[in-house]
Amino acid sequence: MADEVQAARLAPQFTHIVIDTGQKPRDVDLQALAQGCDLLILPSVPATLDTEGLVLTIEALNRIGGANFKVLLTKVPPPPEPDGRLPVSEIDDPRAKRGWDAYRAVGEEVLSHV
């Protein structure tokens, strides 16, 4: 993990880099991200307010043009549910195994696009 200043210095040492932004980056930042990466992943919770923000982000990316992006729908139970505190791979539940398998599949798909 690194902040924005450290990331620029550390980036040449890595093949794959994950950049986590705020919920709604400014259009200029979104454009820089889209043009500076091989694949932009937009994680989103399938809920009305979140989906509306996702639609706005996709519209902005379409205005930019040429952005290679995919949407990743996610859902983590809110506190006080304990499941959100553990990686899904460590939860002893058949549903968690399916969730982990889904994340692994996402990782494989991401690698196929870069």
What are its keywords?
single chain; 114 residues; mainly alpha; Rossmann fold; 2 domains; two-stranded parallel ribbon; 4 helices; 46% helix; 9% strand; globular
Q: Can you walk through the features of this model?
A:
The chain has 114 residues and is mainly alpha-helical. It has two domains: 1-75, 3-Layer(aba) Sandwich (Rossmann fold); 79-114. Strand 1, helix 3 and strand 2 form a beta-alpha-beta unit. It is built from four helices and two strands. The protein has a two-stranded parallel sheet.
| CATH domain class of the largest domain | Alpha Beta
Q: Largest sheet, described in full? A: 2 strands, parallel
The helix fraction, in percent, is: 40-55%
How large a portion of the residues is in β-strands, by DSSP E?
5-15%
Query: Quick one: CATH superfamily of the largest domain?
Result: P-loop containing nucleotide triphosphate hydrolases
**Count of DSSP helices?**
4
CATH architecture of the largest domain: 3-Layer(aba) Sandwich
Strand order of the largest sheet: 1-2
**Sequence of secondary-structure elements:** HHEHEH
Q: What global shape is seen?
A: globular
Could you tell me how far the N terminus lies from the C terminus, measured between alpha carbons in angstroms?
Answer: 21 Å
Work out the radius of gyration. 16 Å
Describe the secondary structure blueprint for this structure.
Blueprint: H1 4-10, H2 27-35, E1 40-44, H3 48-64, E2 69-73, H4 94-113
Parallel strand pairs: 1-2
Short précis:
Helices cover 46% and strands 9% of the residues. By secondary structure, the protein is mainly alpha-helical.
